[in-house]
Design a protein that fits this description.
3 domains; 8 helices; binds zinc ion; OB fold (Dihydrolipoamide Acetyltransferase, E2P); 5-stranded mixed beta barrel
Length: 329
């Protein structure tokens, strides 16, 4: 069953008929009373939309923008830019074993997680941040209140298809807010708000220019597991300690999250590779800055401590919004 939120149905009726929201809700209330107790509010809204000739379900053919993807949909086609690729996991239970991988993609309207099962999971080995992917024949599920596009053996994933572009990705801040002291291992899509109390040096490392995965030094050259000998490009990682008044945690920022955190371009950051001393001032500047970070809590086995891996950073959270949130609690 495709779930469309009540508010969206009202919006759609308003869009198509010009009726005011209050008027639409009156009609829905009447319908609810008429059918006393037999239907839900959403059900009544669907009936009212029908009576007014408003189609709530758009035909599902053709490409959908990410914001229009609704849980329960089948045969979904969408195009997005890859924001993050997660590692392939093997699993086995009593009656099933296999592989699953996932990635986060985004377009001009939002972001969504794509979950790849079985042979589809292997495709992620050749996908890196910034690639464009086209999904065909996906189905949409809800997981912890979040939509995901799932791909199975009958679905298709096209990597960097010709002629497909995604201009600017809108990353809708969507994490559940938690306090640092509440964080648990494997918490995903969590939002933290805190002050940077310590910042560490930026570290550079070699990556394969084709797949952006780590390239390992070998005698006098660099090797990618997938692509053999390569002339490496560079990526970077930076750590900072965040304090939200309940506890502190070390946050790890990779690549474009470093760029966001410091509001600097790749070009600017690469200069610190040859001039590391100049990074001191940047670090000092960061201290005391309040940021919002969305990410996941991982256990770092080397130190046996929780770390927070950033997947999105807002270096300038809106103070009014934050105040409202506090007062609302
Ligand atoms: Zn490679």
């Amino acid at each position: 069953m495709i779930k469309i939120p009540y508010e969206e149905i009202i919006l759609k009726i308003n869009e198509k008929t010009g009726m005011m929201a209050g008027e639409i809700e009156d009609r829905i209330d009447k319908k609810l009373k008429q059918l006393s107790g037999l239907i839900s509010k959403e059900g009544a809204a669907h009936i009212v939309a029908n009576e007014l000739g408003v189609k709530i379900f758009e035909p599902l053919s053709g490409r959908l923008q990410i914001k229009n993807i609704i849980s329960g949909m089948r045969d979904v086609e969408t195009v997005g830019k890859v924001l993050q690729v997660y590692e392939i996991r093997e699993f086995s239970s009593e009656n099933r074993s296999g592989k699953v991988a996932s990635m986060l993609i985004g377009d001009e309207t939002g972001t969504i997680r794509v979950v790849l099962w079985g042979s589809q999971a292997d495709l992620t080995a050749n996908i890196a941040q910034g690639f464009i992917v086209k999904v065909l024949g996906g189905y949409v599920r809800e997981n912890n209140g979040r939509k995901e596009i799932h791909l199975n053996d009958r679905s298709q994933l096209l990597i960097n298809p010709k002629g497909e572009v995604v201009k600017e990705v809108v990353e809708v801040a969507s994490g559940r807010r938690k306090e640092i002291k509440e964080l648990k291992e494997n918490d995903i899509d969590i939002e933290l708000l805190g002050t940077i109390v310590q910042a560490f040096d930026i570290k550079f490392y070699e990556v394969c220019p084709r797949c952006a995965k780590r390239a390992k030094p070998s005698s006098d050259l660099f090797v990618c597991n997938e692509h053999g000998n390569v002339i490496p490009s560079y990526s970077y990682v930076m750590n900072a300690v965040l304090d939200d008044g309940t506890e502190t945690i070390r946050c790890v920022f990779f690549r474009n999250q470093v760029e966001k955190l410091l509001s600097m371009s790749q070009e600017q950051l690469m200069k610190f590779r040859s001039e590391p001393a100049e990074f001191e001032a940047v670090k000092n500047n960061l201290l005391g800055t309040i940021i919002k970070v969305i990410g996941r809590a991982n256990n770092n086995p080397m130190f046996n401590r929780l770390e927070f891996v950033a997947q999105n950073v807002d270096p300038n959270p809106n103070p009014e919004e934050e105040l409202k949130r506090v007062q609302g609690n």
